[in-house]
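Running this now, will post back.
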Amino acid sequence: MGILLSIIKTSLSDFDRNKLRTFLTSLGILIGVSSVILLVSLGVGLKNYITEQFENLGSNILIAMPGQIFGGDRQMTGGNFSGITFTEKDYLAIAKVSGIKAVAPAYVKTVSVSFEGKTEIGSYYGTTAEIFPMRNLEAGYGQIFSAGDVEKRKKIIVVGPKIAEKLFGNMGSFVGKTVKIEDQGFKVSGILKSKGGGGFGGPDFDSFLYVPYKSSPKINQEKKFSVINFQADSETVIDTVKESVTALLERSYDEEDFSVIEQTQIQETVTSIFAILNGVLVAIAAISLIVGGIGIMNIMYITVTERIREIGIRRAMGATRRNILSQFLFEAVFLSFIGGSFGLIVSLVIVFIGSRYFPLAIDLMSVVVALTVSTTIGVVFGVLPARKAALLSPVEAIRYE
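Update: finished.
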């Protein structure tokens, strides 16, 4: 214990004499550790954000889309889109499939929407009333349209909050007003509450213009649909429902002309893409830890050279090679640990502040790994300088000028 205390005291004394050098030596490790932790935090935060975004858009959701979206290994292919569109007959047939809770087809088209001389670009979403409960969409102002409104071909529209804010500003007072889409007037029935999202692969339901699909024959004369959304009764029947709908559509289309995908497949694909990108960035950031370790090794060599006479005197007074090796190895590890600790503190502060603006979340395992790696770097890059000090001859060291 006495030897350990002596080593610690001597090391702290040397660090105190060379404060600036100690700081600069630890800086490389600090930057490396904070970079790794921050990038892992960003990756974890994005994963949580994506998961939350998809969960907010309904559970047990499946989507029938044109083209082959996923290959046999459930990986996204590259978009082998066939250009087919679904019919009202397809929608009604899917609605009769056992195990399906709700069906909401959609005809999607980019349109210009205008109000009192102001025009914005939005996504026309010709659909049924089932889309709202299926996607957990609620009216913030006014009300959503009903199944009866669809059948009665009412010229009404439910506006997403993003485009509503651009058009109206004070959104609540514009319920009941009329907007025009391709020279057709639609009365604003309601404005939705914000769902957020719209990034990282998720649909931006806040920017859609929801119209009963039977109410705009000029826009969608043939009652065609770009996609058909449907919701299984429970998670346990998703596979069965998927197989049934696939078999149903294969009666009208070739297998490669369409895909029936689970919403979770999109979520998993987007998450895996970000995980790969984040892993590459973390690997790049980890290089700075190696650079920091090399910096520690260089400084420790300089320290050994500066303290050769001290080493000689200590050896002459009875210090063993093991004592000298432990001394300099401890200093290298201490420098690395200090850098890692301050890197952790910097990371926590940045995550605490940045989480208000970006999806950041601290991962405990990344903290443990980063500190372990930084300490290990101190050992690895401190061994050679420490060994050099330990192997010095006491007589030659005392004579060193």
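DSSP finds twelve helices and twelve strands in the chain. More later if anyone needs it.
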